[in-house]
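Anyone up for a design puzzle?
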């Protein structure tokens, strides 16, 4: 299976856990643009479950909530795979983080893993409250995160 020349935008999160929905919302806004060669997904998955979603794509952009406490809510951060080298673990396969899952995918099926995987993360405030409404700071960051994804799409197209 060769890479398909397309770009996958994967929004991760839960639509009912307050700010955790931000990745889903950003992916939906990109999907509404109906861009050529871009497929958008909204997924409530983690770990190894990401691999079937990105297999075969030439480029993947993952959008998700992040809670570091180092930035104000709504701050948009961009990461590359190499930025997560420190968090790759040797955990059991049923409990791996996203960077570890991607490393496993690159070892198991390198020919069908995307050439590039980029990450857009939005610093969130509340991922524990059950509500379909995000906090105002995170809601206001959706447009900035969308712009970051669009920038990464253009970069991938030029790669």
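Challenge accepted. My sequence:
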């Amino acid at each position: 299976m060769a890479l398909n020349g397309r770009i996958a935008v994967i929004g991760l999160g839960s639509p009912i856990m307050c700010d955790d929905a931000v990745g889903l919302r950003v992916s939906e806004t990109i999907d509404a643009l109906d861009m050529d060669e871009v497929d958008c997904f909204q997924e409530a998955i983690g770990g190894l479950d990401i691999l079937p979603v990105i297999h075969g794509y030439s480029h993947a952009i993952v959008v998700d909530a992040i809670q570091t406490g180092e930035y104000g809510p709504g701050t948009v951060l961009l990461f590359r795979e190499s930025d997560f080298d420190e968090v790759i673990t040797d955990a059991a396969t049923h409990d791996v983080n996203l960077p570890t899952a991607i490393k496993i995918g690159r070892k198991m099926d390198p020919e069908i893993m995307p050439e590039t995987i980029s990450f857009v993360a939005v610093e969130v405030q509340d991922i524990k409250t059950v509500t379909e409404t995000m906090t105002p700071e995170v809601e206001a960051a959706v447009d900035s995160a969308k712009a970051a994804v669009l920038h990464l799409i253009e970069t991938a197209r030029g790669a």
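A detail worth pointing out: The longest strand covers residues 59-66.
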